[in-house]
Every structure is written in C-alpha cells, then in structure tokens.
Specification:
Chain C: InterPro entries: ABC_transp_permease (IPR001851). The complex is a heterotetramer of chains A (about 300), B (about 525), C (about 325) and D (about 325). Chain A is of the alpha/beta class. Chain A is built from 10 helices and 12 strands. In chain A, helix 4 packs parallel to helix 5. Classes of the chains: A alpha/beta (about 300), B alpha/beta (about 525), C mainly alpha (about 325), D mainly alpha (about 325).
C-alpha cells in the first residue's frame, strides 16, 4: 500500500533547509510515498500543531525535524497512543523521549564542530593562530553544539585561540557585517589567522568582507565552515575558501527506508541512524561537488 | 493676609496666581474670590486666560505661583481627580467626555454604583436616566455618547459635573452650543444649586446670560485681573470696556437697512437636494451678496443642510448648480474646487489641525485648492498669515504657534481665515460666533456684512436668533430634518422665526418633557 | 530648508555623539579612516554603509507614520525586490533590473495603500498581510535558495564607490535629498502633516487625504525596494529568507527616535535618517565591543530607552538645558 | 449591547470558514481537531486577552512574546537547576512579569513615551534576559508537568480538553467579566476614548496605565507557564513573533487599534480563526514554505475583508431604517 507520511519541517530559513525539503520530496517520489509537508515557520508551537493534525489525519508515519531539542514529550505520546511511528530528522531531541520515536536520522552537530576544529588544528600546526568565530542564531541548539564541538577540538591546542565570537544569525548579510567589524577590531585583519563559521552562508558573506578589506581569504586568513552548500565550493574553486564539513540534506531517504521496513516486516531500526560528516577541502575536487549539488534546491 | 469684609463666607480664594506657557504669560498674579451660594461670572476676551485660570485651579496645569484656598484651607490639587475629590467639579471648555462610552458610563465614570466589585449596569442606567430627565433629555443612555449631537454631549457633561459638585461648580462656556430651552433648564438648576450653598463659576460670552444669572463678575484681560464687581451695579457698556479695554458700539438685534438692494445673481442653487435619513429634499438658492440664515432647534437638520451644500456629504438625489451650470458635488474637494468654503461647528474634530501652526492652518484650504505642484512659497504663506492674523485680530499674533495652543475663540478665527484665504464664492458658516467674545463677535458680524457686500454668498447657521435677524437677507427655518419655512424681507424677526420653529411646538414640548 | 533641518534635532545629535564616544571607547580605532582600493575604509564608513537599508526604509516609513499609519511589510518588500533584482541581474541590463525591482516595490506600496486608504483597514493589519505573504512571494521567486548573480553593474551598486564613498551611502543621501525636495518642494509635506494631524478636518478643507495616504505607502514601497536591491547587491545574492527580516521594527524605531510621533502629524526626514544612524552606530559598537552575543539585545534595549528618555518632554531637566541652548542660538 | 454586532459577524465568519474547511477535509469536523485548536492556541488566547485590554486602552504591547520566552526559561531553570518547587517558581515569575509590565506602564505614563517603542525596548530586554539565563533549551521533568500535560477531559469523538485549554477558557471568561462588568474595565475603555479627556474626568490615568500593562505582562507570564506545560521545557527562543499573532487576533476580533472599542470574546474568536487557518494549511500538507506564507496572508486578508464587508453591510440597513422614519 502507498504510504502517507507527514513531515513537520522547520521552515526555510536557509538554502540548506530548502535543499532538505526538496530532496525529501524527490526521495518520496522515488519511493511513491505520499509526503505531506507542514512548514512551521521556525516555530515549535507550529510544529506541535502540525503533528497534532497529522495524528488527526491518521497518517502512516510522521517525520519531525525538531526546531529545538525539548518539549516534544506530550505530543509524541499522543502519536504513540495513535500508533503512528515518528522519525526524527536532522536533529535529535531530549533523551527523556527515547522511547517516543522510532529512530533518528541525524548528523551530530557537536561532531561537525569538532571536525572543523581538528582540520584547523592540523592545518595550522604549531603556529600561533587567532580564530574569529561567526556563531549561528543565539539560542539555536545547532549553534551551541557547533561551538561546543569546535571549542573542545581546539582546546587541546594552546596555539589556537578564539579571539572574537559574535552571532551572524546564520545569514550572509550578517556574516559579512560581523566580519567587517572583526577586521576593524583586529588591526585590519592582520591579527586574524582563521575564521570559523557555523554555516557556509555566513562564510560566503565573510569572504566578501575580507576581499573588500583587501585581504585574501583562503590565504591570508583560513576559512572553515559547515554545511557544504554549493556556493562554498564555488569559493573553493576560486581559492577563497579552505574547508567545509558536509551536512547531507538527504535525511528523508534513510528515514523512508526505515519506516517502510518497519511497516512491512516489523524491523525495528537502530535508535540512531547517523549521517556522515564529511570534511571537504580544496583537495576534494570542489568543482565536481558544486556540480553535483547545484540541482538539489540549495 | 487679607481681611475679608465679604458678607458671605468666601468659599474659593485664589491669590496671586501666575502661569506661563513658555514665553506666553497666560496669567499674571490673578486674584479671584468665589463665595458660597453665589453665581460668579468670569469674563474676558478670547485668550484672556479664563480657561487657563480654571485649569490651574483644578490642577490640570501646574501653577507657577500663587495659592488657592478652599473653605479657608490651602489646596493644591495635582490632577482633575484630586480636584474632584476636594469638591470642585468642572465642565471644561471643549466637551470633555468620551464618545466611545455609553451616556450612562460617561455620567458615572469612576463612580459607578457597585456591588461585589461589579458595576450595577441597570442601576447606573436608571440613575443616568433620572439625572438627564432633570435636564430635559430623554435619550437612550445605553447608546454611545458619540451618537448624539454636540449639544447633547454638552448637556451630559454639565449633568455629570452638577451631579458631582460638592462645593464648587465651574462651568467653562457651558451654554455655547445650547439653545434657549436648554439654557433655561441649566439656569434653573444653577440657581437651585446656589441656594444649596454651592459656589458656581460661570464663563460665557453671552452678556445677556451673564446679566440674567450671575451675582458678581470678575473680568480678566491679557492674563491680568481687571476687576470684580456686583453684576447689578455694573452697566453693560462699562463691562465691555473692562473686557476690551476700549469702547465698543455693541451690535443690536435691529436689522440692517439693506433690504432694498437690487436682486442679485444666483451663486448656487439646489433643487430637490437631499439624502435619505439625513435631510429631506429641499430647494435652496444662494445669491451673491446675500446672507441666508438657517434657524431651527438642535437636531433640526441645520448642520446636515450645511454639509450637503458644501459637499461634505454626498446627496442621493436632486440637482446642484453653480453659477447656473450643473455640477456634481461628491466630496469636499469638489466643493472647494467650485469655490465653496465651510467652517464646521465642531472645530476641534472637524476644523483645526491642532499640531500645525496658525500659518499652516490658514493656508491649508488654499493650498489644497491650488494642488500639490503649486506650493505657496513660504513668503506667500507668511504674508497670508500676517494679513489674517491682523484682520481678525488673532491672539497671540504669532503665526508660528500651534493652533491647538490657542484659546477656543481664536481657533474659530483661524478657521474663518482659512476659508477667506481661498477667496470663496460661497461660504457656509456653522455657528461662527460660538465661543467668541463680544469684541470679536461684533467683528465677525461686521465681517459677514462686508463679505456680503463684496459679493460673497453666505449660508450661516446660528442658534442666536438676534444675530441671524441682524445679518440675514433670508432665513430658512428647519424642523425635524426638513426645511419648513423661508422668511425674507420684513418678515424676518425673532418672533416669526420662533413661530415657524414652534409650528407644532406643542408636540415638541411634550416630547422633551 | 528649515523643515529639512529643524530646530528639534538637538536630542538626536546629542545621542549620536554620546554613542559615537562610547564606540570610540570600546574600539580605539573607531574613527580611523583609510583608502582601500579607491574606497574609504573604516568603522565610520561601515556605520553609514550598514545603516543604508534602515535609513532608506525610514525615509518611506516616516511619511507613512506622519499620516498616522505604519508599514510592517517593508522587510518583506525588501526581500521581494531583492529577489527580483537578483533573478534578473545576469540576464538584463541594470536599468531594466532596477525598473523591475522598484516597480515591484511600487505595486506593493499600492496594495498597502489600497487596503488602508480605500478599504479602510487598520494600517497595522493591512500591512501585516503583506508582511506575511510578501516573504512567501520572495521565497517563491527564489524557491527558498540564495540566488546569486555576478552582474558587475548590480554588484557595483552594493560594493562600488564614487569618489571613495561607497555607492549605497550616496544612494541613501540622494534619496534623502530627492524625498526632501519632493516633499518640501511641493505642498506634499504640508498636506501629509495635515492628513496625519487631523484627517477629518483636512478632508473638509479639501485635502485629498486618500491620495496622500496612497502616495506615502507607494513611496514607502519604493524606498523598501531600493533598500532590498542594495541589500542584495551587497552580498551578491538574494536571500529571500532573511533579507530585511525584522528591519521594519528598526525602521519604526528610527522614525520614533527621530522625533516623529506614531500618532501622525509633524515629521522630519533628516531626523528619521539620523535615527537610523543612531541605531546602526549602536549595532556596530556592539559588534566591535567583543561582548558575547547574548548581550546584544540587552544593550540595544538599554540604549533605546536611554535615547527615548533623553527626548522625553517630561524630563524637564534636560528639556530645560535644551531650551537654554536653543535660546542662545540665533 | 456595545460591540456585539462585529463580534457576531466574526463568529459567523469563523463558523462559515470552519464549515468550508470541513467540506474539503471531513476530518476537521471532529472534536479532536476542536480540542487541538483550543490546546494549541491556549497560550495565544491568554496573551491575546491581555493584549485586548492594552489595545482598547489605546496602547500596544510588543513585549509579550519575549516575556513568554523569558518565563519558560526562568521556570525551567528554577525547577530543574535551582531546585525551586514549581508553585514557588510560578509565583515568582508571575510577580516578576507583573513588575516588568508595571515598569513599562510607568515609563509610558511618566515620560509620555509611545507604548510601541517602550514595549519594543521591553521586547529586546526580556529576550536578551532570557539569553543570559540560558541559550540552551532546558527540559522540565518535574512530576507536576507530566500530571498537568496528561490531564484532559475526554470529549465525545476522541477529542481532549486539556488542562491548558481549560486555563485559557477560564482566563478568557475572566477577561470578559473584568472588561465588561468592572470599574477597571470601564476605565480601560475610557483611556482608549482619550487619555486627556479621561484624566479630566477624574480617571487616574497613570495608575490605570500601569495596571493595564501589568495585566498584559502578567497574562504573558501565565501564557509562558502554559507554554512551558505545553512543551515541558524552557527555551529562550520560544514564542518569537507571538506579539504580532496576538495583535492580529485582537484586530481580527474587531478591536480597533486606535483604542476605545473592542471585546475579549472577539479576540477569542480571532485566535480561533488564526488557528483554523493554520489547521487548514496543515491538513492540506502540499504547501511549500513560501506557499504556506502566501496562503496565510491571503486567508488573513480574506477574513478581514469579509468581516469588514459584513460590518459595512450591517450598518447600511440601519441608515435605511433611520431614513424611513424621517
Ligand atoms: N497648553 C497651552 N500651551 C501654551 N499656551 C496656551 C495653552 N493653553 C492656553 N494657552 C494660551 O494662554 C492664553 C489664555 O488662553 P485661555 O484658553 O485661558 O483663554 P480663554 O480666556 O479661555 O479664551 P476663550 O474665551 O477663547 O476660551 C492664550 O494666549 C492661549 O494661547
Ligand atoms: N434634544 C434632542 N433629543 C434627542 N436627540 C437629539 C436632540 N437634539 C439633537 N438630537 C440628535 O442629535 C443628532 C445630531 O444633531 P445636529 O447637532 O447635527 O443637528 P443640527 O440641526 O445641526 O443642530 P445644531 O446645529 O443646532 O447643533 C441628530 O441625530 C439629532 O436627532
Ligand atoms: Mg476658554
Ligand atoms: Mg449642528
């Protein structure tokens, strides 16, 4: 029978999110799944409402990309009572709800930060290096996790120091503005050896700021960011960006498979299906990466 | 301290009050004494400082200097509420009630009858009804006050203050928008209160009323005390001299001898003009150089007629012609384009733009008429403003003051100036002399005549029949939202107008009772 | 000219000076300026450059507010027009791109004006509709992606410089002068103030109040469109999801800091722009200070309150000082 | 009855809309969906009730969303980290939010500043303060929370009337009574009719202003507690933009932003209309993020236009009737 799946998506705050949505649709069509997407416009209350109405419509499974890790207990309990399996996409929720969902298809955002940090430590070596950090939205758990992962990774290296850290709200415009002021505050950029951005969009903005200040991003200042959106590969091709950590937009594919297996054969999937956090640098043929990602709706 | 020789104990003593607004010294060391049980008229030209004195007494404005004693004890209320609690109830000059609340709520705001913390709506309405009946009003007290005419709102404000007044009742131009009948009721109530020992301060520009009701008179001029007299021993001309600081030949109720002028050309005519539920269709011809007066009781449809004529309201039937040519009057812009002008009766809401300066208010209609792309240069504006400030004696003579800060009478003059500046062919004046002092009153009547001599057509509404008789060439009498009679020539006199108004007066009287 | 540079700007100028001084304290190189690739470079320039979108928005917003209205949709209109500009940039010439984007802004303004002036909706809800739907329209155009472009003309609009001064600053200045000339050079300013001060009375005086209201919303839309184009040109891409997000609040804030009452009436273009600069000076200061971002909003709240209190007519002490200062001026 | 006709019209619009939705998605016409509507919008109903008072008095309160956010974080930290008993935490946060509202009201009155801006600063302040408390979301595991969130009255047809929905209904009813029947309520309308006039009539305008903003913040605090029940967590970014939702609900409910007119019932209906728009979109499930926004805007427009048209229609016969008399 054809499956109907309700997907409570966060919103479309970034290109990555748009790609996740469109990849989910593609994967659904591939598997002939009837996918209902409710867009929560960044609000948890909307996500809860969406899940409730999915339950009311008696869908076969619910996908949830939680905007925040807490606060899902009661609505997921309702889903459980209605015997509808729930799969978490892209982010995990608070541990107290482990039995409330079937599985979580996520990447580990702390790990992502750590990968970025380790790359930087390795690349810099023993040189003293002042890092500036472009954080995500204040209060967003991804931002906190990516910061945490990065901080732990570089804590082992005394020569690496985060000298400035400010939020760029995950956006290009703010990334550029914040980088501009970092450059001014750090002696015209001379004191900065690397930038770490919680996502690629902010890094693209920051790269522009560096260029306008007469600096050479990728050479004068190293860059490392997360997400692997197409534009960062364009910058890599131009030699203006050094590294990015991939966060795959295809979370729905494995989730569909898990649900299908569970529905048909009763196979209980592992609690956590972790997606890979690949590190991609200029050495990894950025042009090819760019071409392959261009069409995915970023 | 002063030695009081007064026979009656002085209830409210005001000594050495001064108040400035920036550079304007509105009050300078003013003294004022109100005795228990007297009705004390507070008089002066527009802008003399009467309203300011009242607001200083009740604590609405903080005072710069001076003391106020109530029953011998110094009081310094810091808000209207405090003054109320001290026993001073006030009706301020502009109707100061809340149009969005019901009549009953307005009457009992902040003192509603309560039970268990809940307003007793029924009881409140019953009391409101009873209170208004004393003033001859029989209206639905549950309806929003804004549904009623300004006159009814004014009566309501007075009723509220009367009901509140513990020791002192202050009435700032309470009769400005009332007709004779209401005024008589009010005077009856004032006398009754005075007999109970309440002191009443009464501000008015109607000298007849002042002589009728007051025991004593205090006159202010330019923010200073001119003097305090017994009403009975103060001749009228002497009073006017005290107010103006100069002589004035007061206009009389006699008709001007301009009847045998040749018939004039028609400026605008209205045939079968009307709007359902507003005014019954009427025929009206307005001629150059002629004043048509509209007379009638409150709510008889005078304002409605005026608004239709000016095009503030769209007619749903009939034909309008300007200088013989048919025109469509859809919005005030059409009226203005055809050379009409209109001074509305509710100047605060429909007339002035309080925040803008005198100059800007004066040029507004002219500018609107000329259109966006032909702005009046600053020099032209200044010139216009200077001319009309002088011509109408607007005080203070500062064209850059926000109009909202002017006294009521001066605001009225600014409105008149606004329309004169457009050099209109037809001017509709709704109660142009309301709230205007004797000097300016005479001035405006002279102006009406002059404008008329210059060939302007005028449609004037006034509740003062004497005044209408003085300048009108024809008088249209309205009743129940329909034009019922037109008087002209020798037939125009107060008695005839009253007769026309009261043609079925018996029924009216009954309805009011 | 008196209307362009009114007497009442003292509080705002003072506030700006104080905030500049604080910025100098948190960042010693704040006033440093140098030439970099033929373009002035320094924090002061950043303030002006980054302040441009809000300054442009406030130019339109101040007129809307003067008529007693408010326009919550400007952020969304920015996003729409930025998206249009970005999608057309690589295939069309700059004039076409600009015409399309500004035309879209004009249509948005017309829509708002229609709802307010003709249908008589309350401005806050009327513009809330476009605030919600407009961002959707912008995302529809970009399909949720960041649409990038490389057209050098459009890029120049965001990053170029004339005589060393970044183009956005010059555009904003030009718009200020243009708006000032239109509004004060014709009778528009007076009629707008009259409409906002007392619409009923103005209508009776023959002012076409509906036309005034329609006009200000249209102008507000055009200003927002320009701001959107500049924002897109700045990052060489249209980010429909985030462009102009919450900027409507900043624009309203700028107008109010500029002393225009939300209850309509008197307005000042220059002071509104000054208000935008005050906000941006504060924002840049926050970025330069190096405090953790958790403090950003707190600082903003405190500064906004302080600036407003500075202007409060009720703070007689300060008002007295101002009055005295004013008297000593010719 | 003052204000009844517009309310009636709003109600008609709501019912008609509901019927239309149910035609397309029969599942909507179930007690389950109705119960969800009440539960999911409980916090919105509570803040919007407070907002109604503020708006009728001629003001506006932009800080409510942030106050909700702050409240959830405070409550979560107090219970989970500081070991405060939940009830004590509730009392403390309600006192705190009331004080916050009172402070805003006092600033508005004493310094004669526009409420829009003062509460905007309040919005920044409260949100900023919640960032300071914690930028992470904090789950609440106290037993009260599971008890309360599990509590529900079963309705026929599988619907659940949850505790927070009941709290909301109680507050709405309380709001109706407070506004309609008390001196405080009358004074709220008086302030909206004109502050200066109300003051001349002896209303203590300053005290009223303080009380009104206090009420709004207090209700926002309660909404915050309800929100924390709703999600069993505290999160500094929760309820972003709720101020606009609640203003929209109030206005859809027929309250004038210029003040002086309006009703709590209308607001309640406005909340339900907004909730219904969302439910409809969720049921549809084919809309992308952007079409969701566009559809929300279009439906918002449709409801307001429909309502305004009906109100205008309702007025016209009245004029005709008057005409017949003359
Ligand atoms: N709030 C204010 N700010 C500045 N000036 C004011 C203010 N109120 C009144 N004035 C000025 O004080 C003077 C006295 O005004 P006031 O209203 O007391 O006159 P009035 O005697 O009541 O006149 P009228 O008979 O026209 O009502 C006028 O010059 C007026 O312009
Ligand atoms: N004494 C009254 N009793 C009941 N209703 C009244 C009374 N006086 C006026 N109204 C109502 O008030 C409303 C407005 O009257 P309005 O003031 O416009 O009439 P008017 O003819 O212009 O009188 P005026 O110009 O003298 O004020 C009308 O609906 C009228 O029916
Ligand atoms: Mg007066
Ligand atoms: Mg009248």
């Amino acid at each position: 029978a054809e499956l109907t799946v309700g997907f409570s998506q966060i919103g479309s705050e970034s290109g990555w999110r748009a790609a996740e949505t469109s990849v989910s649709k593609q994967e659904a069509t591939k598997r002939k799944v009837n996918l209902k997407i409710a867009d929560a416009q960044q609000k948890q209350e909307n996500q809860i409402k969406a899940i409730r109405s999915f339950i009311a419509q008696n869908v076969d499974a619910i996908f949830l990309a939680p905007v925040v890790s807490t606060g899902w207990d009661s609505v997921l309990k309702e889903a459980k009572e209605a015997k509808i399996p729930v799969v978490l996409l892209d982010r995990d929720i608070d541990p107290s709800g482990k039995d409330l969902y079937l599985t979580a298809v996520t990447s580990d955002s702390v790990h992502e930060g750590a990968v970025a940090g380790e790359w930087l430590a390795k690349t810099v070596g023993d040189k003293a290096c002042n890092v500036v950090e472009l954080q995500g939205t204040v209060g967003a758990s991804v931002a906190a996790n990516r910061k945490k992962g990065f901080d732990t990774a570089i804590a082992k290296h005394a020569n690496l120091k985060v000298v400035r850290s400010q939020t760029g709200d995950f956006t290009r415009a703010k990334g550029k503005e914040v980088m501009e002021s970092f450059i001014k505050a750090e002696g015209g950029g001379k004191n900065i050896c690397a930038v770490y951005a919680h996502n690629d969009d902010m890094m693209v903005g920051a790269i522009q700021a560096m260029k306008e200040a007469g600096l050479k991003p990728g050479k004068d200042i190293l860059t490392v960011s997360i997400d692997a959106v197409p534009d960062i590969f364009k910058a890599m091709v131009a030699g203006e960006a050094n590294a990015t950590v991939e966060l795959t937009p295809n979370m729905a594919g494995p989730a569909f498979d898990a649900v299908a297996a569970f529905k048909e054969k009763g196979t209980v999937p592992p609690k956590w299906i972790q997606t890979e956090s690949r590190l991609l640098t200029a050495a990894d043929d950025p042009q090819k990466e760019y071409d392959s990602k261009k069409g995915l709706g970023y | 301290m002063e030695n009081s020789l007064d026979p009656a104990p002085s209830l409210l003593e005001v000594r050495g009050i001064s108040k400035s607004f920036g550079a304007v010294r509105a009050l300078q060391e003013v003294d004022f004494t109100l005795r228990a049980g007297e009705i004390h008229a507070l008089l002066g030209e527009n802008g003399a400082g009467k309203s300011t004195l009242i607001k200083v007494i009740t604590g609405v404005f903080p005072r710069d200097a001076g003391v106020v004693r109530l029953g011998g004890e110094e009081v310094a209320p810091r808000s209207a509420k405090a003054a109320l609690q001290a026993g001073i109830a006030t009706v301020y000059q502009e109707v100061n009630l809340l149009p969005n609340l019901s009549v009953a709520q307005n009457l009992f705001l902040d003192r509603q009858p309560m039970r268990f913390g809940i307003v007793r709506e029924g009881e409140m309405r019953r009391r409101a009804k009873a209170l208004l009946t004393e003033f001859g009003l029989d209206i639905d007290v549950a309806a929003p006050l804004g549904n009623y005419s300004i006159a009814i709102q004014h009566v309501t404000a007075i009723a509220r203050a009367v009901d509140l007044s513990a020791r002192v009742l202050i009435l700032d131009e309470p009769t400005a928008s009332l007709d004779r009948h209401e005024v008589e009721i009010l005077f009856g109530i004032m006398r009754q209160l005075a007999r109970r020992g309440i002191g009443i301060v009464f501000v008015s520009h109607f000298l007849d009323q002042v002589y009728e009701i007051s025991d004593r008179i205090t006159v202010l001029r330019n923010g200073r005390l001119v003097g305090e007299r017994e009403t009975a021993s103060l001749p009228r001309l002497e009073l006017i001299r005290m107010m103006l600081g100069r002589e004035l030949a007061e206009t009389t109720g006699a008709r001007a001898a301009a009847n045998d002028r040749p018939p004039r050309e028609i400026c605008a005519s209205f045939e079968n003009y009307g709007k359902a539920g507003y005014v019954a269709p009427f025929n009206l011809e307005l001629r150059h150089g002629e004043v048509v007066g509209l007379a009638g009781l409150l709510g008889s449809g005078r304002t409605e007629t005026a608004r239709l004529v000016f095009s503030a309201e769209r007619a749903d039937g009939g034909q309008a012609k300007v200088e013989g040519a048919s025109v469509r009057l859809q919005s005030p812009r059409d009226g203005v384009r055809h050379g009409f002008g209109y001074c509305p009766e509710e100047r605060k809401t429909d007339g002035i733009v309080a925040e803008l300066t005198v100059r800007e208010n004066i040029v507004l209609a002219l500018q609107a008429k000329r259109g966006l792309h032909r702005p009046l240069s600053r020099r032209e504006q200044d010139e216009l403003a200077r001319r009309y400030v002088k011509m109408l004696d607007i005080r203070p003579p500062d064209a850059e003051r926000p109009v909202g800060l002017l006294s009521g009478g001066n605001q009225q003059k600014v409105l008149l100036a606004r329309w004169l500046a457009t050099a209109p062919r037809l001017l509709v004046l709704d109660e142009p002399t309301r709230g205007i002092d004797v000097g300016a009153h005479a001035e405006i009547i002279r102006l009406i005549r002059e404008l008329c001599d210059d060939g302007l057509a005028l449609l004037v509404i006034s509740s003062e029949l004497d005044e209408i008789v003085t300048y009108s060439d024809r008088v249209v009498v309205l009743r129940d939202r329909a034009h019922v009679e037109e008087l002209s020539g020798e037939a125009i006199d107060v008695t005839n107008i009253l007769a026309a108004i009261a043609a079925d007066g018996a029924a009216m009287q009954e309805a009011r009772a | 000219m008196t209307a362009l540079l009114p007497r009442r700007g003292l509080a705002q100028i003072l506030a700006l000076i104080v905030i500049l001084a604080v910025d100098r304290v948190v960042s010693p190189q704040f006033f440093d300026l140098r030439l970099q690739d033929g373009r002035l470079f320094g924090s002061l320039i950043d303030v002006l450059n980054r302040g441009t979108p809000v300054a442009l928005l406030s130019l339109g917003m101040v007129l809307v507010i003067a008529t007693r209205g408010i326009d919550l949709s400007v952020g969304a209109v920015m996003a729409i027009c930025g998206a249009i500009a970005a999608s057309l940039a690589d295939s069309h010439s700059l004039p076409v791109v600009l015409a399309a984007a500004l035309g879209a802004g004009l249509v948005c303004g017309l829509w708002n004006g229609f709802l307010v002036a003709v249908l008589g909706m309350q401005p806050i809800v009327a513009t809330l509709i476009l605030m919600v739907a407009g961002r959707g329209i912008a995302q529809l155009i970009t399909e949720g992606r960041i649409v990038t472009f490389s057209s050098p003309d459009l890029v120049w609009l965001g990053n170029g410089a004339i005589l060393g001064v970044p183009v956005p600053i010059e555009i904003a200045l030009g718009m200020l002068i243009l708006t000032g000339a239109v509004v004060r050079g014709s009778a528009l300013g007076l009629l707008i103030e009259a409409t906002g001060g007392n619409a009923r009375a103005s209508e009776l005086a023959g002012v076409g109040t509906r036309a005034m209201i329609l006009a200000v919303y249209v102008w507000c839309g055009v200003c927002a469109a320009l701001a959107g184009v500049i924002a897109a040109a700045d990052i060489m891409g249209a980010d429909a999801n985030n462009a102009g997000l919450w900027l409507e609040l900043d624009a309203i804030l700028a107008v109010v800091i500029g002393g225009t009452s939300l209850f309509g009436g008197r307005f000042s273009l220059v002071l509104a722009v000054l208000g935008a600069l005050i906000i941006q000076t504060m924002n840049t200061g926050i970025l330069l200070s190096g405090y953790p971002p958790e403090f950003n909003l707190l600082v903003k709240a405190v500064v906004v309150l302080a600036v407003l209190l500075l202007q409060s007519p009720k703070l007689s002490g300060f008002a007295g000082i101002m009055a005295r200062l004013r008297r000593t001026k010719p | 009855m003052k204000g009844l006709p517009p309310v009636l019209i709003t109600a008609i619009v709501l019912v008609a809309g509901f019927a239309l939705c149910a035609l397309q998605f029969p599942n909507i016409a179930s007690t389950r969906v109705v119960g969800n509507l009440l539960t999911d919008n409980a916090f919105l109903g509570i803040v919007a009730t407070g907002m109604t008072f503020v708006i009728i008095s001629g003001g506006i309160d932009l800080s409510v969303g942030s106050v909700i956010g702050f409240t959830t974080v405070f409550v979560a930290l107090a219970i989970e980290r500081w070991g405060v008993p939940p009830l004590v935490a509730f009392v403390a946060i309600l006192a705190l939010s009331a004080a916050f509202g009172a402070a805003m009201g006092a600033i508005i009155h004493v310094f004669d500043l526009p409420p829009f801006i003062v509460t905007l600063a309040g919005m920044f302040l409260a949100r900023g303060a919640s960032f300071l408390l914690s930028t992470e979301s904090v789950p609440i595991t106290a037993p009260v929370y599971s008890t309360v969130s599990d509590f529900a009255l079963r309705m026929p047809g599988g619907g659940r009337l949850t505790a927070i929905a009941i709290i909301m209904l109680a507050i709405v009813i309380g709001g109706v009574l407070l506004l309609r029947l008390t001196r405080f309520g009358a004074n709220v309308y008086a302030l909206g009719g004109g502050r200066a006039t109300a003051s001349l009539m002896g209303v203590a305008v300053g005290k009223m202003t303080v009380k009104i903003y206090m009420l709004s913040s207090l209700l926002a605090g309660i909404a915050g507690i309800v929100f924390s029940f709703y999600t069993s967590a505290g999160y500094s970014l929760s309820a972003v933009g709720v101020e606009l939702d609640s203003i929209a609900a109030v206005v859809i409910g027929g309250t004038l932003l210029t003040g002086g007119q309006g009703s709590v019932i209308g607001t309640f209906l406005g909340v339900l209309i907004q909730g219904m728009i969302q439910t409809y979109i969720n049921f549809d499930g084919t809309l992308s993020s952007w079409w969701t926004k566009i559809a929300t805007g279009v439906l918002l427009f449709a409801f307001i236009a429909l309502q305004q048209g009906l109100v205008a229609l309702a007025r016209r016969p009245a004029a005709k009737r008057a005409g017949a008399v003359s």
